Amino acid sequence: MNGTLKRAAVACLVMFGLLMLNVNYLQALKAEELRSDARNIRNYYDRYDVQRGRITAGGTILAQSVEKKKGDFRFVRNYPDGKVFAHVTGFFSPESQSAIENSENRYLDSTHPDLLLRRGIDLFTGEPTRGANVEVTINPRAQKAAHEALSASGKRGAVVALNPKTGAILTMVSLPTYDPNVLSGTDKPTVFGAYNKLDKDKTNGPLVNRAINRTYPPGSTYKVLTAAAFLEDDTSRDGQTIVPAPQVLDLPNTTADLPNSGGAACGGGQVPLVYALERSCNTPFGKIGMDLGYDRMAEQAAKFGVGQPLAVPMSVSQSDVGPKEDQAALAQASIGQRSNQMTPLQMAMIAAGIANDGKVMKPHLVQKITDAKNDTIEEAEPEELSEAVSSETAAKLRQMMVSVVNNGTASRAQISGVEVGGKTGTAQTVQGKAPHAWFISFAPAQDPQVAVAVIVESGSAGTDASGGQTAAPIAKAVMEAVLNK
Amino acid sequence: MSEVVATPVPMPAKRRAAQLFMLAGAVAIVMAAYANVGLAVDGAIPSGMLTYGLSLGGLMLIAYLVLAKFAPWADPLILPLVTLVNGLGLVMIYRLEVGGQEEASATNQIVMTGVGVVLFTVTLIVLRDHRALQRLTYTAGFIGLILLLSPLIPGLGREFFGARIWISIFGFSIQPSEFAKIALVVFFAGYLVAKRDVLALAGRRLLFIDLPRARDLGPVIITWVVAIGVLVLQRDLGSSLLLFGGFIVMLYIATQRTSWVLIGILLFVGGAFIAGQLFDHVGDRFEVWLNPSAPEFYDREVGGSYQLMQGMFGMGAGGILGTGLGQGYPQKIPLAYSDFIFAAVGEELGLTGLMALLLIYALIVERGLRTSIAARDPFSKLLAGGLSFVLAWQLFIIVGGVTNLIPLTGLVTPFMSQGGSALLANWILIALLVRMSDAARRPPPQAIQDEGLTQVFQR
Questions:
Q1: Which of B25, B33, B28, B30 shows the shortest CA–CA distance to B348?
Q2: Which residues of B touch A37 (CB under 8 A)?
Q3: Is B312 inside any structural domain?
Q4: For A368, which of A108, A135, A322, B326 could close a Cys bridge (C-beta 3.0–4.6 Å)?
Q5: Is residue B392 part of a domain?
Q6: How far apart are CA A129 and CA A51, in angstroms?
Q7: Of A382, A366, A362, nearest to A107 (Cα)?
Q8: A238 in a domain, yes or no?
Q9: How many structural domains is chain B composed of?
Q10: B107 within domain boundaries
Q11: In terms of residue numbers, what domain contains A330?
Q12: Which of A98, A184, A220, A460 is catalytic?
C-alpha cells in the first residue's frame, strides 16, 4: 500500500502547492486591484485611521480630529465653530473634502513628501503618525464679527478682509453657510443626503464660497479704480483736479444716456475729483473711462490683479472687466456695470493695494504648517503680486477715500479715533431685483492694518447712500475687530 | 545453534524534550500574538493575556504529560503544530471579538479548546491500541451514517445560513458531520482492509483502464448516494465533497486501482451537475466562482459573491506583509470567525502569514502520512492515510473556496474556525494520529539476547 500512499501524499502536496500559488496570486499580484476596488470599504476606513492635523487660527481651533473609543472609525473630524469658519476649513466627507481640508490635504493626512522624514522617524520610535497642523491667517475675532454683522442683515453676501501689507486673508465669510460637522460625518448615506440637499439649493448656494468663487458687478466701488487710472495718467492730477460732471452723460452711438444715481445733478457740472467720489457721481467717471480708453482701463485693472489666476490656496474665480466693446459699454464698465465682474476678494485687493502704497500683495490663507512635533515645515512669506499704482497716486487715493467716509456716502463706516478710507457701491443686476450693496475700505489711513470688501446681495434700496447703510457697518465691525477697537 | 549476533537495532528517538521545547515555543508565539492584538487595539497588553496564556499553556502541558505517559513514541511534531494553529485561531477570534464581530467569542473557543484537549487525552488513555477500532468497523459505519443524517430528523435538526447541518441537543448546537467524518474514515478503513482483494479484482479492460466488476460497485454506489443525499437534502456541498473525496482516495490507496478514482470523479461530477441543474444554490456557486467580482453576483442578496469578495478585499488589503494584528478590518468580513477565518488571517498577517500557516498544515498532514507509511498493518496504514488525507482535503476545500481557487462550499477550517464540534472532532482525529504514530515509531520487537530461539513479542 505504500506506493499508493506515496501517490496520495503527492496529491496532498499538489493541493497545498495550488493553495500557496493561489494565495500568492491574490495577495501579491492581484492585491492592488482588490485594494483599490471601490467596494472595498477599507479605503473608506483608512480615511479615519490617521490623526489628521488641526486647522488653527491665532490659537483658536477651527478643525480637529477627535479619537473615538468605540466604533469602526478611529478619528472623526470636528469643527468647534463650524458654521463661522466653514468656507475657510471646508469639510471632510467620506469620499471628498473641500477648501483648506482639500488644498492642504496631503499635509493634514501626513502623506506629503515634506513629511517623509517625520514619518520615517515615527516608524522607528513607534509613535503613531499624525498629520501636520495648518495655521491659517484668519483673525478669529474679525471672522466672527463679520459673520455676525452679515448674518444680522439677513441677506446673502460675503466679507473679505486682508492685511494690506502681507496679503494675509484675515476674514473670509460667505453667507449662507453650512455646518461642516454635518458633512464630515462617517455615515455615507447621511452625509451624501445632507450634501445633495445643500448642493441642490442653487438660490442660496450655501456650499459656494462667495468671497472667492462668485463674481458680481462691483458698481460704484469700481470708481476707485477708474480714479486710479486717471491719476496715473498724469501725475500732476490730484483730488482737487476739476472734472466735468454733467447731469447726464451722452453715450456716443446709442440712444441711451448715462445719468447720475437717481438722475440728480453732481455739483455745478464741473467738480473736483474728490467731490465726484464723495457723491459717487456716475457721469465724471464714465467720461474718464471713455477718455482713457479701454486699453488703459483694462491695463489698470490688470495691475490690481484682475484676470490673473489666483490660488489662496483654493482657486479663485477670475474677475473680468468685460470685452472690448464700444465707448458706451466702456463708460458703463468704468462705473462698475455692464460686463464688469469682480470677486469680493478682488475688490478687497484693490482697497489693500491702495492702502499699501500701491503694492498689491498676493492674498494667502495659510500662515504656517507645523508637524506633530511643532516644527515648522512651511511658513508663508509676504509676496508682492504687482505694483498697481505709484505710491504718490496711492496717497492721493487714500486721501480721497478718507474724504468719502468723512464727508460722503460712507459716514457709517467711521470709527472714532481712527481714520477710515472707503467707497460705497450699488450694483444693478437683473431688472426688478434690488441691487447689490458694496463697500470697500481700509483703516487706519496713516498706517493701514486692514482692508475690507463687503458685498450684500440685493442689499440695497437703489442708492449709494443705502449701500453705505447696509454694507459699510459690516466693514466697520470687521475693521474694529482687527484693530481691537 | 548459531549465536545471535548482537547488532544494535537503530532506535527511533522519542524526542520528548524537543517536543516540550516546541510546545513552549508554540504557546509563546500565541501569547506574543495576543499581546500584539492588545497593543494595536488598546495600546496596552490585554488584561486577560495571562489567564489565556496560562490556560493554553496548562492545557498543553496536560496534553504533553498524558502523551509522554501513554504514547511515548508518538511523533513529536504533531502536538506542537496543532497547538500553534489552534492558538493562532484563538488569537484571531479574540481579535475579531475586540473588533466588534458579535458572534466571535474567544472565551467560548478557549473553553472548547480545553474540552478538545480533554477528549484528546481521554482518547489516548482509553484507546491503548487503535486496532481495537477495526473490530468496530460496522458500528463506526452505522454511527457515522446516523450522525451524518441526524440533522434531517425533524425536531432535532437546525438550519443556519441555508444549510441543514446542525442538530440541537439540550440547548447545545452540534455540527455532527465533523464527528461523522472520523467515524466514516474508521469504517472505510476497516471495510476496505477486509474487502480490498475483492475490489481490486479486475473486470473488463477498456482502453487503458481496468474496470472493476459490476457487482463490486455496490459500496461505491452506496457512498455516492449518501454523499449526493447530503448535498441535496442538507444543502451541504462541503461535507458531501469531503466525504466522497475521502472515500475515493482511501479506495484507491487500498486497491491501487486508478479506475476507482476515475469512476468516483465521474459519478460525483455527474451527480453534482444534475444537482446544479435541479437546485439553484449549487449552480449559483459555480457561476459565482467564475466571476465573483461581477456586480450582479456581488449585489445579489442570497447566494451571491458578497462574502467571498469581502474576504478577498481583506486579503488584498493585507498584501505581502499584512496590516499587522489588530490593525486591519477583518471584522468586516462576514463569518470571519468561522468559514472565513483564513481570509481574516490573510488581511492581518498577510501573504507571509498565510504561507506560514499553510506550511504548518502541510507539516501536520505530512507527519500523518509518514505515520501511515511507517505503520505496520494495513488497517493502520489506511486509517492514518485516510485521516491525514481528509484533513488536507478539508483544508483544500475551504481555503480553496475562500481564495476562489475552487467554488466556495462551507466547511470549517480545522482548529481555527470558532465552533466546538469541529474543534472536538479534530482533536480526536489528532489523538488517533498520535496513537498510531506511537505504534509506528515504537521499536520493533527484538530478540532478547542470550535467550536462544525464544522470542518475546511486545504488544
A1: B33
A2: 293, 313, 316
A3: yes
A4: A135
A5: yes
A6: 7
A7: A366
A8: yes
A9: 1
A10: yes
A11: 213-364+387-483
A12: A220
Contact flag A15-B318 (C-beta cutoff 8 Å): no
Nearest CA distance, A111 vs chain B (angstrom): 18
Please, are residues A56 and A134 in contact by the beta-carbon 8 Å criterion? yes
> A220 an active-site residue?
yes
Q: Give contacts of B329 with chain A, Cβ < 8 Å.
A: 41-42, 45, 72
Residue A26 contacts B, CB cutoff 8 Å: yes
What is the predicted ipTM?
A: 0.91
Task: Examine residue A92 and state whether it is found in any structural domain, yes or no.
Answer: no
β-pairing, A257-259 with A248-250? antiparallel
| Yes or no, beta carbons of A27 and B319 under 8 Å apart | yes
| Residues in contact with A291: Cβ distance below 8 Å, sequence separation at least 6, in sequence order | none
A1 and B389 within 8 Å at the Cβ level: the answer is no
Give the model confidence (pLDDT) of A281-302 as tens digits: 889 999 999 999 999 999 999 9
C-beta neighbour count of B320 within 10 angstroms: 12
Q: Do B317 and A40 touch (CB under 8 A)?
A: yes
Closest Cα in chain A, distance from residue B305 (Å): 12
CB contact under 8 A, B366 and A9: yes
- Name the closest residue on chain A to residue B405, using Cα atoms: A22
Determine the pLDDT at residue B2.
Answer: 47
pLDDT value of position B1: 43
Q: Give the structural domain span for B398.
A: 16-184+300-441
Kindly report the CATH number assigned to the domain that includes residue A440: 3.40.710.10
Q: Does A5 touch chain B (CB under 8 A)?
A: yes
Q: How confident is the model at residue B272 (pLDDT cuts 50, 70, 90)?
A: confident
Does B379 contact chain A (CB < 8 Å)?
no
What's the CA gap between B369 and B366, in Å, rounded? 5
Residue A197 · residue A172 · CB < 8 Å: no
Mean pLDDT calculated for residue range A3-27: 94
- Number of domains into which chain A is organized: 1
Contact state of B400 with A19 under an 8 Å Cβ cutoff: yes
Residue B373 located in a structural domain: yes
